[in-house]
Description:
Domain HTH cro/C1-type (chain A): 41-102
Largest sheet of chain A: 5 strands, antiparallel
Structural class of chain B: alpha+beta
Oligomer: heterodimer
CATH class of the domain at 155-190 and 263-323 in chain B: Alpha Beta
Radius of gyration of chain B: 21 Å
CATH superfamily of the domain at 3-119 in chain A: lambda repressor-like DNA-binding domains
Strand content of chain B: 25-35%
Low-confidence stretches of chain B: none
Helix content of chain B: 25-40%
Protein name (chain A): HTH cro/C1-type domain-containing protein
CATH superfamily of the domain at 155-190 and 263-323 in chain B: ATPase, nucleotide binding domain
Number of helices of chain A: 9
Order of helices and strands of chain A: HHHHHHHHHEEEEEEEEE
Structural class of chain A: alpha+beta
Region (Disordered) (chain A): 1-38, 177-209
Number of strands of chain A: 9
Transmembrane segments (chain A): 139-159
CATH topology of the domain at 3-119 in chain A: 434 Repressor (Amino-terminal Domain)
CATH architecture of the domain at 3-119 in chain A: Orthogonal Bundle
GO molecular function (chain A): DNA binding
Strand order of the largest sheet of chain B: 3-2-1-9-10-19
Amino acid sequence: MSEQSLVSTSAGQGPSVGQSESAVQATGEPPTPAVGPVGQRLRAAREARNMSLAEAAQVLKLGPRQVGALEDEDWTSLPGNTMIRGFVRNYARVLNLDSDELMRGLDAAQLQRTQQLEVSAGTTASLPPAGRRVERRDYFAIVAGLVLLALAALAYLYVPPDFWQSHLTALIGSKTAPSPVQPPLPEPAPVPAPVDEVTPGKPATGDSVTALTAPNARLLDAPAASPAAGGSLQLSFAQPARVQIRDGRGQIIFSELCPAGSQREIDGQPPFSLVVGNASQVTLRYRGKMIELLPRNRSGVARLTVE
Amino acid sequence: MFSFLRSYFSNDLAIDLGTANTLIYVRSKGIVLDEPSVVAIRTEGGPNSKKTIQAVGKAAKEMLGKAPGAITVIRPMKDGVIADFTVTEQMLKQFIKRVHDSRLLSPSPRIIICVPSGSTQVERRAIRESAIGAGASQVFLIEEPMAAAIGAGLPVSEPTGSMVVDIGGGTTEVGVISLGGMVYAGSVRVGGDKLDEAIMNYISRNYGMLIGENTAENIKKKIGSAFPGAEVREMEVSGINKAEGIPRKFTISSNEILEALTEPLNSVVSAVKSALEKTPPELGADIADKGMVLTGGGALLRDLDRLLMEETGLPVIVAEEPLTCVARGCGMALEKMDNLGSIFAAD
Lengths: 307, 347
């Protein structure tokens, strides 16, 4: 192909590069459907220079396959839009063509741009960072634990030790309130002594004294010298002893260390629960009746309930 | 305290803080600022002696080599990293102020800023600190080759090797990228500045003439080339004759400039070759197929791509608008900042 034919070819193809379909039809030579204007121009210019595909590939440092793909406009076998544009620019420079015009041709071809940046995340799972072993979740657990500990410490310091016990007793007491005759505990455990003899002259109403913790207390005698309507406990101490008494509502009405030789009289609402230390040295009377305190354990503490 | 509020009113920025030029990309606006990284500082005497910033950017660059004693013209970036911390911070502050319209609140944007891949931890920390000092609420760093590859339109997130050579003012960065990360990153401290310096030295040595940096840059832009071409171009240059001490004019040809540039260009070529040597074979095959992309101002040097093609035997293409590739890449990263983890650099 001569130089002249090159000129005519490029002149003929010139308008078609500018993506105008009508211009192509006006020239009267519709382009081959498979190959667009860019490839055609490149091929024509190369052939005009009597350059083989291999020579062009050698200059462009591309494979002959790639140069062929450029001329055939087989964009899918070439590596991406950026590279294709670069290759075409380089090729145009080798062939002394106007690269801007070819770029416009490529714009018209609308190559798909590879502009997705995200590396597709296969999963959403993530490994814990190597440096930080403790995760946020763990912090919550730690903080929650610390708060619980603090609450426990506060409770230990500020809530009276018998708070729950008294409340529970009150609860049980309120449940059993409709039948005050019944002892708080279900079974009035086997009482060896004749319990019903307590008040021979009186009906067995709430006035009766029942030694619930049977081995601890035994009703000894019943002198009729205590007509008190409310409950009245009399304690006399031969030796110092500690006594704690709760009334029927579960509240502590008396709690102290009583010295030797002293006497105490406590009024309140029966039934009374008593905890008496050094029980062998304490004498207990209830409504004038003597109640024997049998120490249950070795330290001499007696627990009993008196109605 | 109200930083979250201020960041709500501030646009996020991507900054290409280069040795030669600083470009700022504003989210959803594009590149809004392209200025030389030059600051002119005036030192005032008298009782209240103080230093004030006389000019920043283009205005300051025009003063380069022409300023009186009271004005110092500084290029605060050297070899891609901060040489003068305070001045860099002030320069960034001025530039950020320029791109922000809001006057009510001082701007507190999130900033993506690029760093040379070969920079040390200390240098990165300095860049981060200066951006925070300039008012950034958060700073993310991105390595220059990654930003350049994104800006050039390479498929960085695909499992295929892409090689990018970014020749900036201070450094040349070579990166091989695959799956959103840098497989290889190399950096040599040769860039446009070194080329200018080489031209100044050559003319001083062979012509006995002294020329300034701006003149050397002009020579490089007009007749500089990296590969012997068919046509020889000439240019008239004026400088001061060292022997006579008198300004003279002389003519220099592109072949001479080619000779002057040989040494710094060889460093670039060897950096590229060593990157190719250290690239894993699978990615090397991709690069042999696709070649490498040149970005940065250095890519505009005539026939640099041909030099690299001849030296490596691989296809080399120059990216479109190579000067803004890094800034555009930073900007694209900015637009999708919230779902891009892997492309940002750790400290």
